[in-house]
Design goal:
alpha+beta; two-stranded antiparallel ribbon; 7-stranded antiparallel sheet
Length: 257
Amino acid sequence: MVSRFLCFLFAGLLLSMTPARAEDNNSLPPVNRLILEEVSLMPLNGGYAPSAAANHALQKAVAGSGEMLRVDASHAVPSYCSGATYLVFLKTLAALQAAQQLVLTPATVSQLKPNGQPDGTGIWGRWNANGPGTARLFYELGLGPNFTDLRMARPGDFLKIFWSNDIGASEHGHSVVFLGTETKAGVECLRFWSSNIPNGYGVKSVPLSRIHRMLFSRLGHPENINLPLTSRSDSYLSSLERRSSTLVEMERQCGVR
């Protein structure tokens, strides 16, 4: 059987990476290649809806018993951005497990299931939280580095886009998988995959001038998902349902240097 890691070539073609980034594709970190493959295997469209129906669909998509994690993203329609990127994260863990490159404990498999946990609570509640949810989880468990410099970004990095300067209760943000940059009609654009308004799952490109902040997270140590969280609920993330955070506070909470 051909290694799943070799399939990043097909993922790269499907995602139509820009020339500036395509030349980097062969040197991508292995987990980034796998993330791109899992993105290429996600459903297309399906509708965007941050609703109870989408939450129920997300729960149906994630199953598992004992040590085996099972993810069927075809159940997760309609969808929304943080649920879409979380499914890619889980599918990447499941693929590593199937390739015998990752062992998941029964406790971890149980904790990975999105069961309506509130912002800041458990793994899904951290990922789905306002502000730097994914980056805070990565920092807390040592899953990989967080950074804000676009020049450091590589296709397959997770990314929180901030459409305004607000962080927290009043923010306007988007959870995506970074694909690269491109120039369209003379305008520098950011290219990403997520569940996007209005169609749902797919690739989108937006002018960099629309983006106020970017916070990247690169999955480098997926094995650390088995580590215990420091607390059931993260007080910083849970507080962002009611208040705003500063850039300095966000970067400190996520280990950004």
